Amino acid sequence: MDKLIGFVQDHLTDDVSRLILDRKKWPEIDMELAVNCIESRRKLKGKVPEWYDEPKLIFPLKLSAEQCSSSLTGRYKSELALRIASYRSNIADLTGGFGVDSWYFSKIAAQVLYCERLEVLCNAASHNFDVLGADNVIVRNCSVVPENSPATSAVNSDAADTETVTITSLLSDFHPDIVFIDPARRGEGGRKVFLLEDCTPDVLTLKDEIFAFSRHLLIKLSPMADITMVCDRLGEHCREVHIVGSSGECKELLVWMDREWNGEYSITAVEPSAGAESASSSLTFKPSEERQAAVEVAATDEIYAAEILFEPGKTLMKSGGYNTICSRYGLKKLGKSTHYYIPSQKSDISAIESFADLKSLGKIFRILRTVPLDRRGIRSISGEYPKADVTARNLPMDTDTLRKKLGTASSGSYHIFGLKSDTAGNLLIATERY
């Protein structure tokens, strides 16, 4: 093991293809494992820097490094678990994988049960948890199946010898306060699947069995999943939905199910901060609030007088809280189907500055000029801002077409939006980042 670790550190920046071709130079090294460790470490440098900085950790599967949680999302899940079941609880991770989530859970839990169907990942996790000092993690190589399942071995060929266990046999002695599950979203041949019942394991089949041993079930799903459909399928015990974003991208969709909850679920759009002690920016609302929220569409004179434009980020858009932010923060939309916003009051820059919840959930632009989107407007804007990024929304043309019409070159200073207003028609809005 020491030779492997030393080899990986010495060749961390080398061409891995060349290492494989020259593998005979190092007969004592498992080159496939070494290359996987090298490529995994490269992926972890910005994703889980704490693990990248520890040279004694081993990473046998590159794909697991690609799919694992980041430090940001792993920390967020542990903070959520702490709020759900308090400090020093028991947490069962039924789909341990790379082990990042289990490691973060171990920081706040009394015990963590890490379950993983692939033996190679289990062996690596045991080693890594030991190196990291996570001595409260129990590692078990098994695949979870429903109580009445006829299966006697794991479904996937790469884990054919894995022990299959039922929820009862797995959890009856562990007594978890929270069960965490991240169903694999790939079927046979590696094809992506999206329906809950097509993921492995099938949480729809297992959830009632899990509730017999744990009040709380935390599920990680694809950020592409439809929130309404997922909650309808999972049933009445859905308590909270969290859309977790980072750097403007949706990373995870988390559903907290509570066996004793029968009310309406809430939706939280959040961009966790990188600092452990810094506050995260978030927006929390319930679907009923979104349905009842009053929405005002900006009048033509308000649009031309506006000095600030707010563009929701992908995490906020995924939440569906388009109307809630209008009623809660005093914003007006350019159009019912155009999700861009201006303050209700002219020159109300201080209002936008005070929206701490929205700052990392979107972008704030200072409006420099607004003109109709016609030939005259295109000539005027392109002449004044020959270098600008371009975005088209809710128009009969896409961004590339609008960019060609404007003839602009990309720039980090200015941004031209082509947007449809319900009152003022199609517009060109020249802006700079606030």
Query: Could you tell me the mean pLDDT?
Result: 90
Strands ordered across the widest β-sheet: 4-3-2-1-5-6-8-7-9-10
Count every helix, treating DSSP H or I runs of 4 or more residues as helices. Answer: 19
Tell the overall outline: globular
What integer value in Å does the Rg equal?
A: 25 Å
Strand tally: 17
Task: Describe the main β-sheet briefly.
Answer: 10 strands, mixed
Distance from N terminus to C terminus (CA atoms, Å) equals 52 Å
Approximately what portion of the residues adopt beta-strand conformation?
25-35%
Q: Which CATH first-tier class of the largest domain would you pick?
A: Alpha Beta
Number of domains: 3
CATH topology of the largest domain: Rossmann fold
Low-confidence stretches: 152-157
* Class computed from helices, strands and strand pairing: alpha/beta
CATH homologous superfamily title of the largest domain: Vaccinia Virus protein VP39
**Would you identify the CATH architecture of the largest domain?**
3-Layer(aba) Sandwich
Secondary structure: helix percent:
25-40%
